[in-house]
Amino acid sequence: MILAALVAAAGLWTAPAAASVLDDCRGPLCGARALTPYFDALQARGALDGAPPVHILQIGDSHSAGDSITGAWRDALQARYGSGGRGVLPPGDPYWGFIPHGVHIDQTAGWRVEATFGKAAPPADQPVVFGLSGFRLTSDQPGATIGLTATPQEAFDRLIVCAITGPDAGGYVLTLGGAAQTVSLAAPAPGVDCHSFSAGALTTTAVLSTQGGPVTLLSWASFRPGGVVVSNLGVVGAQLRHFARADNAAMAAELRAYAPDLIVLEFGTNEAFGTHFDPAAYEATVREEIARLKRLSGGAPMLIFGAPDAGTDRRELSHNAEPAPGDPTAAEAASGGWFPPPALSAIRAAQRRAAAAEGAAFWDWGDRMGGPGVAQSWVAAMPPLMRHDHVHYTTDGGAVVARLLQEDLDQAAAASGTP
Q1: Which domain holds residue 100?
Q2: Is the pTM of this model over 0.90?
């Protein structure tokens, strides 16, 4: 069954919504003027031989980590414009179930993983530098390796490795395109080095092997000229406050090296499943992170995804925020059925206000799905578009979300005069 039929069968909303309270809205996409530089980059893609690819960097929670949505978005854009490589990845194989589309990662023993939150988080009194990915991969053993093998579609001729430097740091050997290059991370003071390697021709493999003292990696990325790259940096269970723990200097170094043409922030689902939601504090955090990413990236356009619809059957979440008018929360909770936590609507409203205040675009993902409570229809669709947890998407569902998003972006680009 084609995706359009899936949408129709599930009773999903696909027509543009009524005008938002924000003036600059086209249905669920508001503030699209902020995306003009990105639309222009797409239009100019390939105009210069050997030009860098158009790079979309998405940062978020498990919806980004799973890559069902970003993977479908990547496939659609690369079918239209060509591949620019796989883009930015967390270092190595940072957690169980990490399955990045388009590349395979091999990792030997001898590495340890640290994360901004959860069981892998370092002690609170231990100052640790994290970058965009929210992970660190460290080895104290010479000869520990990580390898990247890309599919032919994601072949690359340039690899970038971002690592911690310092007085006690070791180094690594990067083998790319049949040639090996040694990089020392020793430096008088702690810092971040994002080293770019050229293969000279397209390749599908790269291997990094440690040397000397400790080596700590923050992220790595593969690129090729032209085309489009969609990097997905998602962490299962992440909230925006966890991303806020990333270090400014580390992110600035990574953003200079990876040069995104569009930064997408996708958070809010995990915040909505807490027992209490503070809209004022959350809105302040969203504004701070938009402003920080724009500043550190040199003004890259930003698109904020409003939290999607999701459901729960936990009665204690039926009062975690003031329900928005028309939300089915109270009735569904009283009947014992699945319901969207009231905080979801409050989160979307805070994200919308923050995006408008900071000059970012906003996409109302929940509205585009069909509005509050529609997750149940996505779960019941044949084939299912959401999993039985009423939160995560199937492969089919991810493809539907990616298609709806790109339709709205295409309409905004056409309205701006960019084909």
Answers
A1: 88-224
A2: yes
